Amino acid sequence: MDEQDIDDRVGARIKELRKAAGLSQTELGRRIGVTFQQVQKYENGGNRVSASKLWLIARCFGVHASAILADLPGPSEPATENTQRLLAAWQLIPENQREPLLDLVESMAVHKRLRGRQRAVQSEPKVQD
Q1: Does residue 36 belong to any structural domain of this protein?
Q2: Residue 50's domain spans which residues?
Q3: Contact indicator for 72, 86 with CB cutoff of 8 Å
Q4: Which residue has the higher pLDDT, 108 or 129?
Q5: Does residue 75 lie within any of the structural domains?
Q6: What is the pLDDT of residues 25-78, one digit of tens each?
């Protein structure tokens, strides 16, 4: 992945979040102190988004700046498609509804881990006395 690919993906994510928030390019530009043409350039990858603008854009959408970068692969392993989908959906969930969902997901993960341990214990050879 080269720099232009990253700029394109960040721009696409900004556009996706902007549309989900129901904002026009003009309104987003007004909120972050740039023209709608500059927002267009961000969204099509023509201009890079500075860290400070990325932070302002994220604030407009009520998300952390990392949400805009969520679909970019990290240094160790690329994000899976399901991980990307989960992160994108998570950002659209109202803040007051996130905690119960997080509790549910964590309980499912713990349950699966415990089931895996039970299977491992069941499959261990029995020691005769």
Answers
A1: yes
A2: 3-92
A3: no
A4: 108
A5: yes
A6: 999 999 999 999 999 999 999 999 999 999 999 999 988 888 888 777 766 556
Written as six digits, the tokens of 107 are: 């309980």
Most confident region among 43-47, 82-86, 106-110, 117-121 by mean pLDDT: 43-47
- Burial level of 39, CB count in 10 A (0-12/13-18/19+)? buried
**9 within a domain of the structure (yes/no):** yes
DSSP the chain: --HHHHHHHHHHHHHHHHHHTT--HHHHHHHHTS-HHHHHHHHTTSSPPPHHHHHHHHHHHTS-HHHHSTTS--SSSPPPHHHHHHHHHHHHS-HHHHHHHHHHHHHHHHHHHHHHHHHHHHHSPPPP-
CATH label of the domain that carries residue 45: 1.10.260.40
For the chain, how many structural domains are there in total? 1
7 lies in some domain: yes
The CA–CA distances, whole Å, from 115 to 32, 56, 79 equal 49, 44, 26
- Global pTM exceeds 0.85: no
